[in-house]
Amino acid sequence: xxxxxxxxxxxxxxxxxxxxxxxxxxxxxxxxxADQPEFGGMVAxxxxxxxxxxxxxxxxVASIGVTSVAHESAGLWVPLANRRGLMTGRFxxxxxxxxxxxxxxxxxxxxxxxxxxxxxxHGFFHDTLRSLGKCGRIVVLGRPxxxxxxxxxxxxxxxLEGLTRSLGKEAxxxxxxxxxxxxxxxxxxxxxxxxxxxSPRSAYVSGQVVRIGCVNESSTANSPALPSSAFDWAQPLAxxxxxxxxxxxxxxxxxxxxxxxxxxxxxxxxxxxxxxxLEATLRQLNGTALAFDIAAPEAPAxxxxxxxxxxxxxxxxxxxxxxxxxxxxxxxxxxxxxIDINLSxxxxxDDALLAAGILRDGGRIVTVSSISGIAGNLGQTNYATSKxxxxxxxxxxxxxxxxxxxxxxxxxxxxxxxxxxxxxPLAIREAGRRMNSMSQGGQPVDVAQTxxxxxxxxSAGVSGxxxxxxxxSLIGA
Length: 477
Ligand SMILES: NC(=O)c1ccc[n+]([C@@H]2O[C@H](COP(=O)([O-])OP(=O)(O)OC[C@H]3O[C@@H](n4cnc5c(N)ncnc54)[C@H](O)[C@@H]3O)[C@@H](O)[C@H]2O)c1
What we know:
By secondary structure, the chain is α/β, with parallel strands linked by helices. It has helices spanning 4-9, 12-21, 54-64, 77-83, 119-128, 151-171, 191-198, 250-261, 275-284, 299-307, 332-355, 371-375, 381-401, 419-422, 426-434, 444-455; strands spanning 42-47, 67-70, 88-90, 102-108, 132-142, 176-182, 209-212, 241-245, 265-270, 288-291, 312-317, 359-368, 407-413, 466-469. The strands form 2 sheets. It has a 7-stranded parallel beta sheet, with helices on both faces. Helix 8 crosses helix 16 (444-455) and helix 10 packs parallel to helix 11. Residues 224-228 have low confidence and may be disordered. Residues 245-246, 248-252, 269-271, 274, 293-295, 318-321, 341, 368, 370, 413, 415-416, 418-421 line the site of nicotinamide-adenine-dinucleotide.
């Protein structure tokens, strides 16, 4: 759907009018395009005491080919980068006023062990934030608080959340700010996640906290389809098969397209009445269309039978419906229908695919929740119940699937421009669009790219996570 306000305030006349009336001016977000370089410009590095992740960051900087500058807090960076032959220099605080010079700010806070050691964060962001360009990226790296050795360290690491989320709210201009907690021993598994958060692919993902854990390498060793380390960054899903429910339109069609662009063979599922749209979408992607109702009792067996011979590596549970009414007016059928399609059907399908080994070891399950499942919403008791249940599924299943190297994660979209949100009354729709740090709704591709990152072979250490794709919505924040 078209956001006419965003288009208007980004026209020369509209921009002048918005400025004179003090109206918000949402930035036109810089999104990933296959015909444009994904990374470029200069990254500023900062660090707290005894940073543990600089080696891993040097690997990343070398791999994505950006230049770097070290803030005075990251004294170790320049010799390290020089040893690695990376283009680097020192960030001069006097340059603080040169707007737009930097593409990203990276801060390694992994060594901070006490609240008294948080000061370098202030120094770094105080000096550099004004130099960060439009749609720039902020990533802070730390250690998972719950893995810390003592309460002081836990406290200091947990404090990073407040900083990161506040930076997202202050920075505006399409800038995102996210926090990545890296478990000790998981340092070699950070690249796919950092690439995502530094890329235009994460244009509408801000204020999020993601944990990267250690990978049980032996669990993926027997899976010829999913080598845990060797993949091509341009086609990371080459040779993989992915099933996507609700693929005929909206977010599901965008997911199918994003996974196919990464090299996957996509099997799209949708209801029989959407068969034409489903077949048209999958034809364009050289994929396979399966016209089933996922909530039908025979659906798990039908999907299992359709996938059986070659199995599947990625399962994306996207199909979902709304039937909004306040609970006093909601019929039993409206309640049951929403819970069944949005939640119970996923459980039945996963049970069938996992029990028969059709979802291969080292595989990925990604499910679509909603910020309604986090915050609740008036008129959506059924929907919010189903979407909170999806979060419960992720949290409860992740530890059990670990032994097989299978990850399970959820994305929780905020306001995304689709036919589902086009049905919302205008005033509520407009509020939903603007109540976030980006002052605009997201696009289906924003959810799709987030799912592609979670489905990536390099995301083996990311499991049990709920990632909001909401432009840092104020709802449920
Ligand atoms: N659009 C948003 O702002 C938003 C926000 C939060 C969460 N979500 C979630 O994202 C997902 C996709 O939403 P969307 O906006 O693209 O919706 P949409 O209505 O445009 O598309 C949903 C698709 O799912 C299919 N589907 C519905 N019931 C099915 C069934 N029983 N079996 C098979 N397919 C079925 C539909 O035919 C349709 O193609 C949903 O789970 C939704 O709850 C959307």
